[in-house]
Structures are given as C-alpha cells and as structure tokens.
Amino acid sequence: MSSNRLSRSKVPMRRVVWQVLAALIVIGVFSWLIGNAQANLGARNVASGFGFLQREAGLPIAEHLIPYTPADSYLRALVVGMLNTLWVAFWGIVLATILGTVIGVARLSKNWLLAKLMSAYVEFFRDLPLLLQLFLWYALLQGLPPVRQAIHPIAGVYLSNRGLSFPVLDWQTAHSWTLLAFILGLIATVISAKRATRKSLDDGRQRATWPTAVLLMAVMPATVVITLGAPFALDMPSPQSFNIRGGVTVSPEFFALLFGLVIYNAAFIAEIVRSGIQSVSHGQIEASRALGLKSSNTLKWIVFPQALRVIVPPLTSQYLNLAKQSSLAVAIGYQDIVSIATTAMNQNGQAVELVAIIMGVYLTISLSISALMNHYNARIALVER
C-alpha cells in the first residue's frame, strides 16, 4: 500500500519534469533558429532589427483609414495595412454572418424551390476555390464601363471600373456627439431591458420597454442634434473626366475582396446554422406550436437560443478562416498588411522582421476573435447544477 501511494505521489512530479524539459527544448530550438538567422544575415551584410520601421517608406497606398503619405515611416505604412486588413475582416464577418444565417434558415424552408436554390448556392460556392472566385469578381469589376459611361442606377450612385461611388453625410463634430449620444442610449436601453425582464420573471408582470428605448435612442440624440445644430447635408459624388470626386468610392479591389469573402464564407456559415437548427429537438417546436406561437416567434425564442450552443464553436473557426483568408488580397492588388509588408520587404530586405510582423498581426487578430467568441459561448452555455 505504501509503495502504491509513493508511486502515485511521484506522478505529478514526473509530469512537471517532462513539461519543463519540453519547454527547455522549445526555447532551445527557437534560440538556435534566431541565432542561425542572425549569423546568416550578418554573413551577407544584411542589417537586422526593427530600426528600419522609423525610416521613410516611400510607398504609395491608395486606400487608408488614417492620414498617410509616402513620406511617412514604414511603421505607419504597416499600421495602415493592418487597419485595412481589420476593416475588410470586420465587414466580411458581419455581412457573411447575416447572409449565411438567412441562407441557412432558407435551406430548411417548406418552399421546395427556395430550399433547393439555397442548397445549390451552398454546394456551388463552397466547392469553388476562394482565390478563383476573387479573380472572377475582380475581372467582372474591371470590365465595367469607365467613369464617363458609369452605370447610374439611382440618384447619387455610380458604378464604374473605378468602383462603387455613393453619397455620404458631410460629417462634422456635432455628428460625432450625436453618434455618441445614440451609442450611450443604446447601452442604457439594453441594460434597462434586461432589468425589466428580470423583474418580470420575478413578479410575472409585463413591463413595456419601448418608452425608455424611444427616450434614450431617439429623443436624446435628437436633442443633441437640435442643440448643436448638426446639418444633414450630403456630400454627393460627381463624375469627372477620369475619376469621381466627392462622396465615398469603394475601390474595385476592396469590393471584389469583400464580396468574395462574404459569398464564399456565407456558404459555410449557412451549413453551420442549418445543422444548429436541426440539432434542436423537434418536440420543442411542436410544443411551441401547441402553445400558439407563430413560426417566426418559435424560431426567435425557442430554436435559435438553443441552436446557438451548437452554432458558436464552429462559427468561431469560420471567423478565424475568414480573417486569415483576407491575406489573399495581395492577389488582386488590395493593400493589406501582407501586400504592404511584401513591398517593404522588396525595398529593404528585412524579410525576417516583416514576416514576424505579419505573423504577429494575424496571431493577434485570431486570438482576439477566439477570446470574444469564447466569452460569448461561455455566456450562452448551459449551467449544470
């Protein structure tokens, strides 16, 4: 008996020893790789380190969310590329989620034609390589007429080989305060609605939340608009000889990349949503019908809350795939972090450092998405008693 207890007590110690040895081996391998890279770079008289980030980039970037000129540093150029990557990944996740959810629900429709069309969509776009789809959408956009013959479907909207141009609000400081008031009102409305729901569950009395929502999300921003005098003038696009001035123009590169990411990933998200809905017991749907609930309310209050527990884990993986797939932007000329870092690499030869920066950016994006989705998954998970 004593020998068995002694052997069992040594098991945790052996585990710690093996873990320490494994960590030392990993550290040793990385140290050797770094030292070998530095020795090879030194033998070829290639400077190493991140000091080059402060030098002038001389790199033109067509699309940037923050002010940028070629006279700025490599660091600012890489920040611009990172923001471009985050911008397309954010809108790709939002739009692909909306489209994929709609298609996933439509696949289960009782309408035979609608269900078959959505099934064909999923099978067609899921089986085509994403890079091929990006080339297709980009080629179609490049085939649009020039600015002088731009397609003009509605007032203020122009579609040409320069991209999609549309009006935008002439943004001023008063609009920023109005937006802040709306966001604060939205947060306060959500908190108020949760409290009202909690009280209703305690005493069984229904409480109307719409007066509070109107006050916080409509009256309060309207008061800010009236007080600060925020104008609602639109900056309208105006076609010129070779370009369009005014408004906002979405470049063909960004449009093709975003459209391709959304169309492709929506097919996978649709399957995730469909499988999640089908995982809910059919008996619960029949029970909701027996209670007189409409199909829309059944889907909203019965099916989706339970299906989310099945949907969220694979959906997280699909979001990670979409974020990493945005690196294919380099193939169609959209200047994301990979494109800008590759150009900088050709200019100064700092390949190791720039590849490390690219890896760090995508690692940070992936870990952030995973952390947010895991937090949400923990909130909706069933709590065992």
Automatic annotation (TrEMBL):
| Alphabetized InterPro entries for the sequence | AA_ABC_transptr_permease_3TM (IPR010065), ArtM/GltK/GlnP/TcyL/YhdX-like (IPR043429), MetI-like (IPR000515), MetI-like_sf (IPR035906)
Superkingdom per UniProt: Bacteria
List each copy of the ABC transmembrane type-1 domain by range: 82-373
Keyword Ion transport (UniProt): no
Q: One GO molecular function term?
A: transmembrane transporter activity
Task: Write one Pfam family the protein is assigned to.
Answer: BPD_transp_1
List all membrane-crossing ranges: 16-35, 86-108, 120-140, 174-193, 214-234, 254-273, 354-373
Membrane topology, from the record = Multi-pass membrane protein
Q: Which GO terms describe its cellular component?
A: ATP-binding cassette (ABC) transporter complex
- Keywords in alphabetical order: Amino-acid transport, Cell membrane, Membrane, Plasmid, Transmembrane, Transmembrane helix, Transport
Record's subcellular location:
Cell inner membrane; Cell membrane
Among the record's GO biological process terms, what is one? amino acid transport
Family label: Belongs to the binding-protein-dependent transport system permease family. HisMQ subfamily.
The identity of this protein, by name, is Amino acid ABC transporter permease
